[in-house]
Design brief:
single chain, about 200 residues, Leucine-rich repeat, LRR (right-handed beta-alpha superhelix), five-stranded parallel sheet, three-stranded parallel sheet, about 15% strand, F-box domain-containing protein
Length: about 200
């Protein structure tokens, strides 16, 4: 399976465009629609981009609009790709990645068009929040103000306050989705109980 960083790196190998570029036989609207319909098939998008330089811009745009990363290695590779190719940063609108021991806030901070984030688990990680290895995880709040939709999957929070601290990192979220997640609500203070009910 191709990852966005593999795709971005392989695009450097594109041959230069011939001086006699022919127009495609189909109207551009049809070609762009076909590329759009392949948005869920990253290998096909990669093939489009590598096959024809005229298909490259649209394929790249669709490839990087919604990014789903499955492991910490892909997260790091994707960060390196968009850091090195800053023109890709405003393209990313949706990002899904696993909970792990590295903070994603440096990545989130360089994606100005990012509107949806999904935090997911990875095999071998229990999704416990806050992760013991991340004492400063939430001190990057100003960088994630553009996110409007947040999904949290397969995790659990040790306390209602931990959940609230996590949510406070995303001050402009309008839609919150929690799937297969749990929250330990042992706090007895009325303020915490009221906020957890929200």
């Amino acid at each position: 399976m191709s990852s966005p960083d593999d795709f971005a790196n392989s695009l450097h190998a594109l041959p230069s465009v011939s001086s006699t570029v022919r127009s495609p036989a189909l109207p551009w609207e049809v070609i762009e629609r076909v590329i759009d319909l392949c948005s869920g098939d990253k290998n096909t998008l990669r093939t489009f981009a590598l096959t024809c330089s005229q298909l490259h811009p649209r394929s790249l745009f669709i490839f990087f609009t919604n990014v789903e990363l499955r492991c910490a290695t892909q997260l790091k590779g994707f960060y390196d790709s968009v850091q090195a190719q800053s023109h890709l940063q405003p393209v990313v609108q949706s990002l899904s990645f696993p909970w792990n021991a590295c903070s994603p806030f440096s990545l989130l901070s360089i994606l100005p068009s990012l509107r949806h984030v999904t935090f997911d688990t990875i095999p071998g990680f229990n999704g416990l929040w806050p992760p013991p290895a991340l004492p400063n995880y939430l001190y990057h709040r100003p960088f994630v103000t553009g996110i409007r939709s947040l999904t949290i999957r397969r995790t659990w929070f040790r306390a209602g306050t931990a959940f609230l601290h996590f949510l406070s990192a995303f001050p402009n979220v309008e839609r919150l989705t929690c799937e297969d997640s749990s929250l330990t609500t042992s706090e007895t203070t009325p303020m915490v109980q009221d906020r957890v009910r929200l």
